[in-house]
Structure formats: structure tokens, C-alpha cells
Amino acid sequence: MIHHLIKQVLNLPDASAASPQQIWDASLDVMTADPLDLVLYMERVWDLSTHGEPRDYASARDKLWEMSRFKDMPSTLYPIDPWDHLSYAYVLESTRIVQILRRVVRAYRSGESLGIPSIETQRWVDATETIMFGAANPLSAWLSTSVVRPDPESVRRNAYWRMFGLDLSFGTEDEGAPAYEKAAAANTGFTALFEELLFELWQAISNERNLVGVNKSDNDRIFRIAEQLKYVLMSRRQKGMLRREELAAVTALGWAELTVAFDSPVVQDLVAQGSSAAERLRLMGERVGMPPHSKSAAFFSMASEISTLMRTIEAGIVSNADLAWVLYALPSSTTTGPKPIGVETRRVITEWAAATGKNLKDASKPTDIRMPRLAAVK
Amino acid sequence: MPKSTEEQIDMERAFAGAFALFLERANASAAASLTSSAPTWVGEMLDALAPLKALSPGHGELPDQEARKLADLQDALSRADLSKALDSEPRRSLSKSEQRRTGR
Questions:
Q1: CB A332 within 8 A of CB B68
Q2: Of the residues A6, A78, A171, A329, which has the fewest C-beta atoms closer than 10 A?
Q3: Are the beta carbons of B77 and A329 separated by less than 8 Å?
Q4: Could you tell me if B92 lies within 8 Å of chain A, comparing CB atoms?
């Protein structure tokens, strides 16, 4: 979501062709934006991708948007939710970045133990409290928290549990057990299915140029597992369930990723300059006494790629075995139009294996994808 | 994975031709190969296999509906490569109001 805004600020036909200086400037523009402008942008994206609400175009949200700094962005309706998949938030949050940034914000708000923050860093603290920790400014950000569910981290943990049957690998900031509602309807079979898909995709990748030997790739199985994964994930999304929570989660984690993606003002103020996001996070963690996850580099490396892979699966683009190649083929130089996502899949296979320690390239036996029970029952 | 039946046939023909050549040359030069360190028929066989290389794996095309979905998705999720910002030094100058506020 935050990347979407950076793209809008860049205002180029092809954001990937932007120069380093342009990207720096756009990133800094977003990072030092007024928190209310960020919230209004968020609301605008929600509005343009949520069609058919009663009196959709006469709401206060539309009137407020006219006052926003980013109001000149295109206002066409989005045919598809233009934000990352919840898996993007999950892998980034697994680095423990949210808890580290919480300590940074608390230190800046409660004293001068981290030094005097620059003007830009103070603006970052304002926005971080709004986007990540639920400060009202003057609107609460995108309504995924309330007195009923006040802690944004618990809301995200609940969403991760329901969607992936997974919890974060660490407890609360003070090492306590996380307190969140573990829903009865949860996709506890997700991990086995997903890893089986990655295994089959690796078989296909290994044999893609194999013309004469034994070819172990199985497009039909790839299609079936992808289809089953789609059913499993969509069962938690019926009638737009978890959509708002997903938007809030990917925005919060997108903000966190932007914070450590470059030597931003807060990174400089914390003397945490590094050559990678994982390195900057490690140094920031040292300043506040909290080490990040030891596999942070793998999590950062696959965040956007796993989002693309999951969204492609959920969109049902692999609608039959003859289209399984979309998930593992590499785009050729002559490819026009949409490209197969083989590059992203390769990255996910590599980094998922690194993060979990599992050998995805060698499976002893296939997973049963019939999945008689899709949801966990307490 | 071949694109079509025609390409599959081309591939099989190329392989059959190369294999026939292999048998012929291997038979003819069996005795000579005992004294020859670099039998030339190996190169000839590789040349015969060249058509196989031209048959790059193809995957057909996406139907319109799936292609449109994927294009929308890739357009929505495309992003600027933030790691590029690492290559750039912060050169943003302070605005006048910021200069007044900070005394810089």
C-alpha cells in the first residue's frame, strides 16, 4: 500500500525505471507526509476499490479527500484490490520489526535516550503512531481497531491465524504469551499445502528445459494444489471478510518496511545505516535492546514476491493444468503483456526454505490435498 | 515442454536423426577411436542435435480473461525498487520554513 503511494508520487509510466534519486525523493516525500494525508490516502484507496456502497460518491470521505495533499492522484476505480496480500504483512512482521519500532517510538516519546530526533524523524514518529499503533489523527486509521479489539498487533495475529493457521514465532514485546482471539475457523492446513505447491513448482522449474530426460514436473498437480489453496484462502474471505484487516496490516507493515528500506531520517538519527533492510533493523534493535528474528533477511527478501504469488493463486489465474506454467515460467525478452511469475516463485522457494529450514526441493511423499477438514475446529 | 504437436514432431525427428548418426559413426569408427583422441563424429552429432536447442520451451498464451486479471494484478503490485535509494545520497535541501525552524 505504501509502495502504491510512492508510485503515485513518482508519477512515472513505469515506476521500475525511476532513478535512485527519484526514488529517494519520493520515499522521503511519503515518509515525511502529514499523518492525516496518509490516512486520507488510505481511505481513498479503500473507497476506489470498494464498489457499490450505498451513496458511495457522496460520502464525507470523498469531501475530506478533496483537502488531501495527494488529491491529484488518478481517481479511476480499481478493478482489483491494489494492495499486497496478507502474507506480505505476515513475513515482514515475522522479523519483529513492529515491536522494535514500538520501542523506538516509545523511547522518542518518553525521553531523550535515543538523542534529539530531527524534524523529519519527529514527523515519522507522528505517522508511525497513527499508522502502526492506532493514534487518532484526527481519524483513527482505517477502523481495524476499536475498544472491542484495541491492539493492532492482536488484530493482525488473529488475521494470520485465520488465513494461514500460523502465529508469529515470538510472543509479546515483553516476552509474554500473545493474547488474541484464536478463531475456530482457521486454515490450519495452509502450510502443508503451500509447501507442497512450492515443491511441485520446484520440480517444474528443474525440468523446464528438460527435453529428453525423465520429466518429473506435473502441471496437473500444480493446478490442483493451487486450486485447493485458492479455495482454502477464499473460504476466509467470503463477502469481503478480512479485507479491511488486510489493508490495515499491509499498510502498517509497508510503512515499517519503508522505514528500513533506505537510510531514512530515523535510520540516520539512530545511527543504524546499513546496506540492507535486515542490517538496519538489526542495528535499530540494538539501540532499543531487542534483536530481530535471525532469519530477517529471508523475510525481507521474499515479502513482495510472496504477495504476488499468493494474489496470483487467489485470483484463479491458473484455471486449468495448461496454465500452470504461469507460476513457474520465466518471462522471455519477447514476452508482451502480463508476465509469468517464475522469478517471484523462485525467490519464495529460496527464502521460504531459508526461513523455515525445510528442504523444499526434496519431498519424501506427496501431501494429501483433498483436505477433508479445511477449517480447524476447537 | 513443446508448444505444439508440430514442434513435438520436429523435436523427435531431430533426436532420431542425431541418434542414427551416432550409431552410424560409432560403428564406423569403433576401431579408429581406440587410437584417436578426438573423434570428429562427436562434433557432427552435436551439430545434428542443434535443432533441439532451437525448440525453446514454450507455454502458449493466456486466455483473455486470465491475461487481464494478471495484468491488473501486476499493475497494482508493481513497485519502485527501494533498494535503489541506497545508491543515492540524501540531497534534499531544507525548505525555507524548515531552515527558519531549525536554524540551519
A1: no
A2: A171
A3: no
A4: yes
